[in-house]
């Protein structure tokens, strides 16, 4: 994942957005935090591409299993091609809305994935707008405290920041953190990721001292809970060094 431009960083300063993973028909919410496990996306895509014609022939193009398979193929079949994934999901969405309904959890999950792929394809503004439109529906259908609603809010903050509104992103993450902590727990990887993102956007908003201080407080617990080699821990270590260097002798801004 490339860093938000303009930036001289070799690493990103924010964690990956909550994005594409395959759903199952028995658990139709289609998304969960990305980056968990390596898996075999190409093998999954090949298997789904071979399966889809049979599903269409036997069950029909509008069968829920067929639609699920199309969604999975769009995610896994476009590895390295977020624009292609976004196009495939955009083509699927009208069929999902017509067959399953606009409020179906799977339909809502595909909307989240579509927004993520739009952002990864280079349009963070479109991603932020789509997520801003999606979050109220998730809150209404799943509930405001549902993990998918909370993680979609985190996605919204990430793309808002990557679209250039670091102040707004920091404010959104600061408002989200108490809910993440209450629902998922203080030691959940997504809570750690949101705290890391909040620090980074504080730094990008002009307070590198606050960013460095927040990460210095966060890192010992991340090492203890996630381990020193966990990607979230490594990212936080990188960001701490980055903001520490940029802060120089400046103290965190009060308030």
In short, what is this structure?
With 255 residues, the protein is mainly alpha-helical.
User: Number of DSSP strands?
Assistant: 2
What is the overall shape?
elongated
Query: Would you identify the CATH architecture of the largest domain?
Result: Alpha Horseshoe
CATH topology of the largest domain: the name is Serine Threonine Protein Phosphatase 5, Tetratricopeptide repeat
Structural class: mainly alpha
* Cα-based radius of gyration, to the nearest Å: 19 Å
Kindly give the count of domains. 2
- Name the helicity range: 55-70%
Query: Tell me about the biggest sheet?
Result: 2 strands, antiparallel
Q: Can you tell me the CATH class of the largest domain?
A: Mainly Alpha
Q: Spatial order of the strands in the main sheet?
A: 1-2
Query: At the fourth CATH level, what is the homologous superfamily of the largest domain?
Result: Tetratricopeptide repeat domain
Number of distinct helices: 10
- C-alpha termini separation: 32 Å
| H and E order | EEHHHHHHHHHH
Uncertain stretches:
1-12, 19-37
Strand fraction equals under 5%
Q: Give the rounded overall mean pLDDT.
A: 84
